[in-house]
């Protein structure tokens, strides 16, 4: 059917002109197709019926509220569901309960925000079509002023100031949804709590030679020798071996008691045998060089030097703190044992961190 078969009053051009929705140009040789203009604007029921508008407002608020509840469900699932629990879901079969709950709750939270925003725009925001001429890329002052005016007009037409229920529930949903991402930060690893302040050393733990894997007796440590030890029960096959040995590695030196200058060091030793952390307090390198005549130990990384006859204080290099000492004694069978944990954290820069 051609345009000549349509009554003139029903032509889009006539309707557009009647409703003032843009001028209609005439066809010519250069532009063979006439501009039909915009179709007449049809009012929605929400535009003419405040009760319908209120229903839409409540619907949008309900969707935002569902998003908030789903976000709370996401957090509750993350905290309360064991990571190894599985459930049967038809037709998926046996799946991880935590992953299923997180996916459902986060999906509902995001979908509800999107659905609420779409319903708000489709039913309550202005839907009048406006024709605007193309303009250069640069923005002259009058265009900027128009943009600001359009923004204010859009904010006014969105009714965000008047529809307080929508505004408040939307802000609530948008505020809670980011908490889902914050909760996921826990997957970076378990919370350290006080683990950085403690090692495997405890009262009654025997000192085991790192080379022979045998418990040490006082007679096994000769004067002037350097021995490396670990806590009894810590084996290289343990899953957490590297993590634990990085805190519990010990170096044992036997000095003549009269050569020990620090009173606490003497009290915490046994027959001149002193036990200090092997971890340098600069950047955590393992200390392994010992000068028998001076009783100094040297870190091979940055040459921090500690005096083991004087509380392992720093006498050279970038290390900022003395090495922590472990108080030792002997058990009923004559083996060297710890009388507690280190009284200060081992490792570099901990004092600045904690």
UniProtKB/TrEMBL annotation:
Tell me where the transmembrane regions lie: 60-80, 100-121, 165-185
How the protein sits in the membrane? Multi-pass membrane protein
Subcellular location(s) per record: Cell membrane
> Which stretches are tagged as biased composition: Basic and acidic residues?
16-33
Q: InterPro entries, alphabetically? A: QcrA_N, Rieske_2Fe-2S, Rieske_2Fe-2S_sf, Rieske_Fe-S_prot
Indicate the segments forming the Rieske domain, all copies.
242-337
Q: Name one GO cellular component term.
A: plasma membrane
Q: What is its main location?
A: membrane
Arranged from A to Z, the UniProt key words for this protein are: 2Fe-2S, Cell membrane, Disulfide bond, Electron transport, Iron, Iron-sulfur, Membrane, Metal-binding, Oxidoreductase, Respiratory chain, Transmembrane, Transmembrane helix, Transport
Report the GO molecular function annotations.
2 iron, 2 sulfur cluster binding; metal ion binding; monooxygenase activity; oxidoreductase activity, acting on paired donors, with incorporation or reduction of molecular oxygen
Residues of the region (Disordered) are 1-42
One Pfam family named in its UniProt record:
Rieske
Q: Which Gene3D superfamilies match?
A: Rieske [2Fe-2S] iron-sulphur domain
Q: Organism's domain of life?
A: Bacteria
Q: What does this protein do?
A: Iron-sulfur subunit of the cytochrome bc1 complex, an essential component of the respiratory electron transport chain required for ATP synthesis. The bc1 complex catalyzes the oxidation of menaquinol and the reduction of cytochrome c in the respiratory chain. The bc1 complex operates through a Q-cycle mechanism that couples electron transfer to generation of the proton gradient that drives ATP synthesis.
PANTHER family cross-referenced by the UniProt entry: CYTOCHROME B-C1 COMPLEX SUBUNIT RIESKE, MITOCHONDRIAL (PTHR10134)
- Family the entry assigns: Belongs to the Rieske iron-sulfur protein family.
How this chain assembles, per its entry, is: The cytochrome bc1 complex is composed of a cytochrome b (QcrB), the Rieske iron-sulfur protein (QcrA) and a diheme cytochrome c (QcrC) subunit.
Q: What is this protein called?
A: Cytochrome bc1 complex Rieske iron-sulfur subunit
- Organism (species): Streptomyces naganishii JCM 4654
Q: Which gene encodes it?
A: qcrA
């Amino acid at each position: 059917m051609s345009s000549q078969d349509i009554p003139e009053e029903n032509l889009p051009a006539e309707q557009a002109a009647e409703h003032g929705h843009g001028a209609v140009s005439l066809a010519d040789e250069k532009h063979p197709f006439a501009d039909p203009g915009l179709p007449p604007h049809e009012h929605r029921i929400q535009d003419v019926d405040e009760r319908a508008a209120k229903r839409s407002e409540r619907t949008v608020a309900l969707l935002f509220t569902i998003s908030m509840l789903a976000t709370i469900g996401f957090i509750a699932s993350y905290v309360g569901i064991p990571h190894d629990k599985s459930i049967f879901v038809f037709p998926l079969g046996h799946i991880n309960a935590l992953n299923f709950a997180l996916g459902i709750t986060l999906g509902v939270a995001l979908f509800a925000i999107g659905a609420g925003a779409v319903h708000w725009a489709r039913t309550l925001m202005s839907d009048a079509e406006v024709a605007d001429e193309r303009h250069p890329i640069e923005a002259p002052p009058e265009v900027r002023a128009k943009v600001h005016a359009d923004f204010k007009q859009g904010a006014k037409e969105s009714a965000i100031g008047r529809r307080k229920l929508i505004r408040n529930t939307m802000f609530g949903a948008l505020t809670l949804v980011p908490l889902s991402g914050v909760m996921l930060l826990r997957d970076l690893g378990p919370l350290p709590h006080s683990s950085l302040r403690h090692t495997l050393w405890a009262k009654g733990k025997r000192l085991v030679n790192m080379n022979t894997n045998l418990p040490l007796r006082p007679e096994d440590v000769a004067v002037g020798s350097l021995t490396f030890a670990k806590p009894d029960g810590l084996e290289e096959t343990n899953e957490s071996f590297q993590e634990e040995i990085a805190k519990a590695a010990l170096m044992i030196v036997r000095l003549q008691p009269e050569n020990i200058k620090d009173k606490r060091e003497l009290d915490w030793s046994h027959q001149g045998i002193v036990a200090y952390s092997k971890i340098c307090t600069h950047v955590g390198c393992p200390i392994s060089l010992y000068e028998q005549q001076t009783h100094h130990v040297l870190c091979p990384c940055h040459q921090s030097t500690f005096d083991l006859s004087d509380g392992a204080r720093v006498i050279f290099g970038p290390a900022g703190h003395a090495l922590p000492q472990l108080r030792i004694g002997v058990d009923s069978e004559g083996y060297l044992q710890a009388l507690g944990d280190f009284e200060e954290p081992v490792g570099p820069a901990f004092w600045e961190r904690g």
